[in-house]
Amino acid sequence: MNISSNPAAVHKPLGKYCHTTLVPANAQWLVLSGQVGIDKKGNLANGIRKQTEQTLRNIVSCLRDQGMRKSDLVKTTVYLTDSRFIEDYRLARSRVIGDETHHLASLLKSKLGLQEANLLAGFYHQTYCRRTAYSSIDEQPQVTRI
């Protein structure tokens, strides 16, 4: 199980995220490519809130495809084209991901050049994990240090 915390020596989070997430050594990782607000049929959602909701639904679909849940989410990096979209992003995240994801580490950047193809938001470098229990030491992945 991941352990999330907000160290006492660091300011209170400015949104619904945590400062640290400790991932156990025997975790299985799933790394997703950047996601945008385009549905399965190739249609770009209209407006920031709908694009963000579609982006998050794409992420949830990727998780489910690998047998994972929203609670397996560890970190997201979000890029918005304009800081005026932050509240719409937060409302969409709350609607699709839920407010129980305070364990999620997050980075939000705005005023970036994503305007290609009318994209208003992009979610990149999302990293997810879940704990995997190994029944014996022989089943654990081997790590080679260079």
Chart the SSEs and their pairings.
Layout: E1 3-5, E2 20-22, E3 27-31, H1 48-65, E4 73-80, H2 86-96, E5 105-109, E6 121-131
Parallel strand pairs: 4-5
Antiparallel strand pairs: 1-2, 3-6, 4-6
Question: Any key phrases for this structure?
Answer:
146 residues, alpha+beta, four-stranded mixed beta sheet, two-stranded antiparallel ribbon, 6 strands, disordered C terminus
Write structural notes for this entry.
- The chain has 146 residues and is of the alpha+beta class.
- It has one domain: 2-Layer Sandwich (60s Ribosomal Protein L30, Chain: A), CATH 3.30.1330.40.
- It contains 2 helices and 6 strands, in the order E-E-E-H-E-H-E-E.
- The strands form 2 sheets. The protein has a 4-stranded mixed β-sheet, with helices on one face. A two-stranded antiparallel sheet has the order 1-2.
- The protein is globular, with a radius of gyration of 17 Å.
- The chain starts with a strand and ends in a 15-residue tail after the last strand.
- 22% of the residues are buried.
- The C terminus is likely disordered.
| Helicity, as a percent range | 10-25%
Shape: globular
- Tally of DSSP helical segments: 2
Head-to-tail CA distance between termini: 28 Å
Number of domains: 1
The CATH homologous superfamily is termed: RutC-like
* Number of E-type strands: 6
Oligomer: single chain
- The CATH first-level class comes to Alpha Beta
Question: What is the compact description of this entry?
Answer:
The chain has about 150 residues and is α+β, with helices and mostly antiparallel strands. It has helices at about 50-65, 85-95; strands spanning about 5, 20, 25-30, 75-80, 105-110, 120-130.
